[in-house]
Write a structure and sequence with these properties.
Length: 230
């Protein structure tokens, strides 16, 4: 494992669809038939894995309120299941196009990744600190488009959130469910849209509707009042 190395992803299109629990069950079965398991995921007995992320914001919640340049990027620390490593991430999105930068660090070094890393320098310069943890169960399936490009489908449910003000993940049972979101489907691809996704959208009558886990969690945790003053 090459820890501390910064990597960046190629820009990809990301479409989000909020789902009911019934829709999620049907699409989960469809995805298992049509696509392959993510080979990098550490799957549990349900063919899924738990994802937890610490989200960062300023004391004035500039990221939440999308003020100026704060509206274009999110910074987070992500953990997959009980893995021994964490990911320091910056996610930038413009319309439907997403790009990520990430660095892997050992889980036991979270308290002192320091300002010598690009992530530490960024959050220090932008006065960011952890404000909440969001976790969920994820099904991840992958494939290849007609042009030989990688494609990815993720389906998240059992969403939970908890307040935090430090660089630590909350203990099990502390987080509260986010009842406003039953499930979220995300489709990631490079242009053009692959046929398998076109077929999925048509078969289930899906309608794209941008949904933000962070904004939903912030409202549930009482941070949403900041938006009325944005």
């Amino acid at each position: 494992m090459n820890t501390h190395a910064r990597t960046s992803s190629s820009p990809v299109h990301e479409l989000k669809f909020p789902l009911t629990a019934a829709q999620a069950a049907e699409i989960r079965a469809w995805a298992r038939r049509e696509l392959n398991p993510d080979p990098l995921a550490q799957l549990d007995a349900d063919d899924c894995y738990r994802t937890s992320s610490l989200y960062f914001d300023t004391p004035q919640f500039d990221v939440l309120c999308r003020r100026g340049s704060y509206g274009r990027s999110k910074y987070r620390v992500r953990r997959y299941g009980a893995a021994s490593e964490l990911f320091l991430e910056r996610k930038m999105k413009h319309r439907d196009v997403v790009r990520k930068w990430r660095t892997i660090i050992p889980a036991d070094s979270l308290d002192h990744f320091g300002h010598t890393s690009w992530f530490g320098r960024r959050i220090s310069a932008r006065a960011l600190s952890p404000v909440c943890e969001i976790s969920y169960r994820r099904l991840a399936r992958v494939g290849v488009s007609e042009l030989g490009q990688p494609i990815r489908l993720t389906l998240d449910d059992q969403l939970q959130a908890a307040r935090t003000n430090g660089l630590q993940f909350v203990q099990p049972g502390v987080a509260s469910p986010l009842p406003r979101i039953q499930a979220i489907l995300e489709l990631k691809y490079r242009q053009p849209m692959p046929e398998v996704f076109t077929r999925l959208i048509a078969e289930f009558g899906l309608v794209q509707n941008p949904v933000s886990k962070y904004r939903t969690a912030a409202a549930a945790l009482g941070y949403g009042a900041q938006l009325t003053h944005a």
